[in-house]
UniProtKB/TrEMBL annotation:
This is Translation initiation factor eIF2B subunit beta. InterPro entries: eIF2B_beta_subunit, IF-2B-related, IF_2B-like_C, NagB/RpiA_transferase-like. Its main location: cytoplasm. It comes from Mesorhabditis belari. The lineage of its organism: Eukaryota, Metazoa, Ecdysozoa, Nematoda, Chromadorea. Keywords: Cytoplasm, Initiation factor, Protein biosynthesis. Component of the translation initiation factor 2B (eIF2B) complex which is a heterodecamer of two sets of five different subunits: alpha, beta, gamma, delta and epsilon. Subunits alpha, beta and delta comprise a regulatory subcomplex and subunits epsilon and gamma comprise a catalytic subcomplex. Within the complex, the hexameric regulatory complex resides at the center, with the two heterodimeric catalytic subcomplexes bound on opposite sides. It holds the Pfam family IF-2B. It is found in: Cytoplasm, Cytosol. GO terms for cellular component: cytosol; eukaryotic translation initiation factor 2B complex. GO terms for molecular function: guanyl-nucleotide exchange factor activity; translation initiation factor activity. PANTHER family: TRANSLATION INITIATION FACTOR EIF-2B SUBUNIT BETA. It comes from the Eukaryota. Belongs to the eIF-2B alpha/beta/delta subunits family.
Amino acid sequence: MNHRFTITVARAAVIFVKSVLMHREFLVFKQVGKSPETMTTASTRQEVIEEGRKHLLIEEGRKQLLINLRRRTTREPSFKLATDTLNFLRKVVLHGTYNNLEELLALLRENGLILSGAYPSELVMRNLVLMVCKLARESNSRETNGEFDSPYDSLNKLWKKEDKENQIGRSAKTIRKKLIQAVNDIQIEMETCREHISAQGQYLVHMNDVLIVHSLSTSTTLSSFLAGAKKDKKTRVFSVQIPTEPDDHDAVSISLCEVAGKMCEATKVILSGATVFPDGSCLAPAGGLSICLAAHRHSVPVYVLCAFYKIAPFFVPDSSAVIKHSLPGLPVAMASKWAGRVRVLQPALEMIPANLITLFVSNTASIMPSHIYRLIGDYYHPDDVANY
């Protein structure tokens, strides 16, 4: 009896495994839009299965990225989000199905719209998608012409048009190889941004400066910048801390309401930016607007630290659409009492206008707010921005 029961269980397990594999194969064929009955040869069937597996791999990577964003309770550093997005786009380039540049751009644009539609407040993801599109165009052009000659770089080249017919006919294998190398170079540049920004601290911060900083415990770039500035100079630092943030830095902690009193002693204000817009405005941690207004009242210069992947190529007419709100963190007694009656808003970011900012400190140079728009052409293509 036990022997028959064991055989029955084994047969049931085999049937279950076969059904799972058949269902998996059905999903693969469904992903590519074909049915198993239409496959006449084994080689064609295998090619379709391989193509479907690549589609599923991209879809699983996108779902995992969105799930990780959904699970987080606090806003993660922009560098981690940019790294995760770039790794996903690398999968799209490697495993995506396309035959030419136009199909590759459409595939990148499709996945980018899904990401930005799910989280419109995370502008870094949108920036990375548009950067990879620009890299794809450059890789394709260099493969044919030896260099990337954009008609948008100069007024004298505006009459030239890109050779779209040749773009359609070029090999996808060659584009993929060149683009992966370019994406890897962007990854290396992202990893060295913090080091290059901190190296500028010794030139921008002078002896006996009194600095007011904000969100020091949550910004590793700001911490590195101060460390580079204090190597051979004596400075005083006032750190505007939120009560829930840890205080583990060598700085005098002050609350946001004390900023106006301490601003008369300060010589510089240093903030960490989340996103920089073409008009010179930026998104900074909540509380930064009050600090900048106080600095403007006392004529204190304001420096904003930002890496190249935080520079957005488009304007945002309504800042509330891109400002993420954090969890209020109410006590249990108050949360249970006010559940469904009161909505507590706690924005994580604030919009700071360009007239309150003196200088943007990027990984390449220090830039005035009125010159930010000049960097957009280095990282983005006008056609990609217009069609996104």
